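Example 3.2
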Amino acid sequence: MLPTIADVLALETVRRGNPRVVAGADRLDTRVRWVHVGEIADIAHLLRGGELVLTTGVALPDDPEKLADYIGELASVGASGLVVELGRRFVRELPRSVVKAAEAHGLPVIVLARETPFVQITESVHSRIIDIQLEELRASEQLHEVFTELSVEGASPAEVLAQVARLSNRPVLLENLAHQVLACESAGRDTGTLLAGWESRSRAVAPPERTAYDPASGWLVTTVGARGQDWGRLILLCDAAPSPRDLVLAERAATTLALGRLLERHQESLERQAHGTIIAGILSHAYADPDEAAARARAVGVPLTGRKLVSVVIRPIEPIDQALDGQAQLGELAEAAAAACRDARLPALVGALDQDRVGVLLPLPPRTQAEPALTALADRLRLLRKPPFVLAAGSVVDSVRDVRRSFLEAEQVADVAVRQPDGRAFYRLPDLRLRGLLHLLRDDARLQTFAERELGPLLAHDAQRGGDLTRILRIYLDAGRNKAVAAQKAHLSRPAFYDRLRRLERILDTDLDDVESCLSLHVALLALESFRRESR
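Structure, written as tokens:
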């Protein structure tokens, strides 16, 4: 930190001149950036601010107004102060115009009663300034090395804050934009006291700059973020105004935190892409040999060989709005699923299947049952993911060759379960009751014949005329044959909906008020849905 005028006055070389403050005694804490010797009156344009000007006054004007202008010009360019040696131009004291102008402008003015070699003053002050700058440079280099190492090692926020507390010997906290504490290092203080009423206290401190000190709270606050996306604040609790080293420390720590989060997100995004590519390759038969898929999975840390394999599909209960960055929403669900697998110590391939489903290929360790593993995964995912979702699992298979069948089964289960979720941890085919039975019988020619006999004329009618009567029938049956509710769900007036029901009865040659007829049609529709899902 640069020396103050008070520090300069305490130097032996200055004290020998018997210094006396004649103006600006309340400004002796002003920092001195440099010492400049100058005798000319128009010296102000040669200064950059922060200089302590030394002069004998021999070239200063006699006119009081011009002397006042001289003082005003020094103050306007940010000079830290003026030191005048008496005896050559001014014998015992300075003119009143100088003192009055200095007080008016808040410029500290010191007189030296004895002759003092200015070169000794400049050497003493400059030597101290350079020593301070070298010390700050060494400290900055040390901080650079410490936080570069933390960045390279991928240190956690807790580790970064621990270094900040160690280097500053002060409490430090990291909060998000909602003023919730993400990490805290108390530096020996009572943590409960530090965090008491934190949110309200934090909201009251809102400095305009990205890094700023708030004297009222004693907080040094630094915004944390990268690429224009701020996500938190680093707060260093100070007992006094922070030093330049404290500022560098806070900013370097904030940069390390932002970089760590950026790299973590990038790494996770690449991981999800890699996993998704492998899953897609298995489902589309892109790999000529299942061993190739196993090798690719093993390369990303997921062993498939010699394991029981369970396919899992996770689907949000609320539809994802693609207009509101649906890809990002699905990406967040995939990252949460991957984190849940890590928490449960279950290595797995996790990636997006399409626009509203996340797929998980879970290789079960030896002697591990599917049910406990699925329960652990679902429980941890619910802790990480607040929006409701359904987790559906396919059959356990022994080979990569059968994974596609397991995934198709899990997708079918998810599509059914998401319509009427009942809050269970996960869903499997037996949980779907009639739908599950129809899915198991989907390859049976007798079921296919039944569905064709029941629905054939209606499907042909819609295909020839581009109609939607099949959809109307499904809405009517899903509504429990409640015509008013069905009309509302179909977004049709009651007369228009009743007219479509009469057309359905003519085409199918049946009575839609007959319970058994409607049951038969409903089963046929569920079977048709199973066929179409499998053919996809």
